[in-house]
């Protein structure tokens, strides 16, 4: 029964109907991240505009519902925000995921990403949730170079 | 006949793990023996008793405990030799696992310390493996190719999960053919005797990764026609940390040591050494003593139940599982769909649902333990154009009721993702 709390309706929705999926032009940086333990992978592009505004996060990947839904939620949260704002969300999401289920998530910062709170209780799946978010962080750093 | 003599409920009582429950009162449905098997009391008690009352180092201590430990350790070698029909006990080498056994043999090729022509290897020479191999029967050969400039070739796999055996791939240039006896993903049992015949015609040696066959079928190493056979203890109701390399004595004698250290020597000077005869030449350092003894107890246990009976039981479980799984919509079996030349490992995909999600829900809701992922056989998954599979693997203690639980779980998984 524990596991089903991991599969929140919102996660399943994003898995079945991923938002912003597909690689698009133009972009400032493209990264490819893999999870060698399970073979999940993602190619992710970011396009940053004036005043540090994230114009697009596009991605293509394969993997389990958690990794794919996390990428979809990331796309929704990041697009239209500033890089600075999104990195704060990434940090809070990382803190939640690495908290072994003991961390109280900050819903104001996380928005829909709070649906992944249940994943933190499953150490083997934390990397699935973080895959696209770590790729995003990497891409943002590279886009500034 | 088997169904009468084979009492699975009695067997389950030998395995303490089946008396426990998982958190939230879920029953344990263990369908992951291809990954690692559970242990019976007979193995656990033998190991406990040795640690408690007889433990000392082997082969060197001049006292009662040393003698008892050495006797028990060497006695385990006798048992294992008997279990796989080795012509001589000295042909049984204890390793850490099957991977080490495969690496040991790979290390003997193209090694300047080995001038035997059967083991020389360089540019122009070829090694033949297959696309269905576990990484442990791929990577050691890739490393060997990098060291020597030899060429790695492989048999493909057919759409129905059989070895695409083309005898012409084995040529005068082939020095060794190394393939799985039974695939850890497909369950396919390969025509190893036929492959060995062809390899020997051209003077090549033959190695078998028997990690998935020795635990489940009566295996006679001489009958297989191979020169080397690797298998591991933890998949055959024994402990982890102990594996076996069987090799033909005259080949083992021709091979250089793999690891240097204590116990593997005859005499040591500051500038050179001479080596102990086989098998000890390949057993440097203090070995996994209690693990070897535990593996001896494991083969005693399996022998008492009877390998033919175990094989027949798994066969009926596999038939039952294949029938039940066929009825699930969107389920695709990766591997042979029939019982012919196939063991009790069934891998599959379910349309639109990633195996990690399948495994998670099976475990969390139903206590069904399966393996999900590429099962250390990534090239095979690439061959089928899939990133991962869900794998159920059966052993002597499994029941048709557990397969029913798997199927119920899979129906629920499909409901969650519908």
From TrEMBL, chain A:
Entry's InterPro entries?
Answer: NIF_FeS_clus_asmbl_NifU_N
One Pfam family per UniProt = NifU_N
This protein is called: SUF system NifU family Fe-S cluster assembly protein
Domain NIF system FeS cluster assembly NifU N-terminal, first and last residues per copy: 6-128
Which residues belong to the signal peptide in this entry? none
> Molecular function (GO) terms listed?
iron ion binding; iron-sulfur cluster binding
Report the source organism.
Answer: Nonomuraea aridisoli
A biological process (GO) of this protein is: iron-sulfur cluster assembly
Give the domain of life.
Bacteria
Automatic annotation (TrEMBL), chain B:
Which reactions appear under catalytic activity for this entry?
Answer: (sulfur carrier)-H + L-cysteine = (sulfur carrier)-SH + L-alanine
User: What broad class of enzyme is this?
Assistant: transferase
Spell out the PANTHER family in the cross-references.
CYSTEINE DESULFURASE, CYSTEINE DESULFURASE 1, CHLOROPLASTIC
- What cofactors are annotated for this protein? pyridoxal 5'-phosphate
Stated name of the protein: cysteine desulfurase
Sorted alphabetically, which keywords does the UniProt record give?
Pyridoxal phosphate, Transferase
Residue limits of the Aminotransferase class V domain?
A: 29-406
